[in-house]
Amino acid sequence: MAVTALFMTAPAHAEADDGPAPVPVFTDGYGLTQVGTPEVHSSTDFTLTVTTPELSGQHKIRIFLPHDYAAQPGRRWPVLYFLHGGGGTVDDAAAAPALHSDSMITVVPDGGLKGWYADWVMQHTALGAANWQTFHLAQVVPFVDANLRTIGDRAHRAVAGLSMGGFGAVHYGELRPDLFGHVASLSGGIDFGMPAVRGAVLATELNVTGAWCAVSTSTPSGTGQCTGYGPYVDSDAIFGSPYAVFDDHVWNQVDPASTTNLARLSGSDITLYTGNQGPIDHFTEIASTTVENRLDKLGIPSRYVDYGDGSSLSPTCDGGHDYGCWSAAFADYVPRLAASFAAAG
Predict the structure, then answer these.
(1) Given 24, 126, 171, 307, which is the most exposed site by the fewest CB atoms within 10 A?
(2) Pairing between strand 105-109 and 303-308?
(3) pLDDT (0 to 100) of residue 114
(4) Phi, psi of 161 (to 5 degrees)
């Protein structure tokens, strides 16, 4: 769908980073309908609110543009999709300043408090329609490409996520290698063969906070806990029964660590980050190591950064499941991604 680039000036009350500047106006399409006016955080940082038949309710998409996006109308840009963690929101991206890069567009779509980047088995829970995978891959990606000056090929499109979003990033990279040539997981729940990871999904379904609740902008100050995963839903709502005796075929089908799925990452640029401190990253280290070992056996190159207690990564990182580590990991990852984008031409 061809879209003519339109712009609106950031309102006076917005905190503009370089004075009044054009903010792109998006045209509805691909099943997405905009609601209200964008939240303009600055001339290169704004949030759209959309509705879609694939999901109940309204959902946000936060976008970071390079600071000279408007000043270079003839230039196209690579895109990084950032997938937030469980209990998180699109505003979590602001906790990792490296995501607002002058080398690429960053798109942060709502993943739900417990969406798990999946089309749910059950569509009639308290949350209603829950086709997150379809929302992201069939709607958000083409919507962004139609409305922004992107370079719309896999060599110039990346997906990266943390915790629940780490699963989403690897899963989407495996499911749609035609879309994403670069995949990164930070402290990701990326091995569904692990009872602890399946338990994390169940915890989100049952709204058991404190299990794998990612530190988020929704976290009450000083508590270390997120505000929850939203309404209780059936324990089989997202991927069906997690127990083999009751048929866990959906879990196995989408398991990022299965060799069948990992083989689909051949030719992709793969990066894994994890610490090993605390009750959560203890397990993400095991999951990430399993994935790395299986990639090695498949002969698929990857970059694995196990920063342990965090001392090798950053003074802000203690090896735990938080943005003190993830912000530093993105500060390491984004320049490397920018170089890969540049090398692709």
Answers:
(1) 126
(2) unpaired
(3) 95
(4) -155, 165
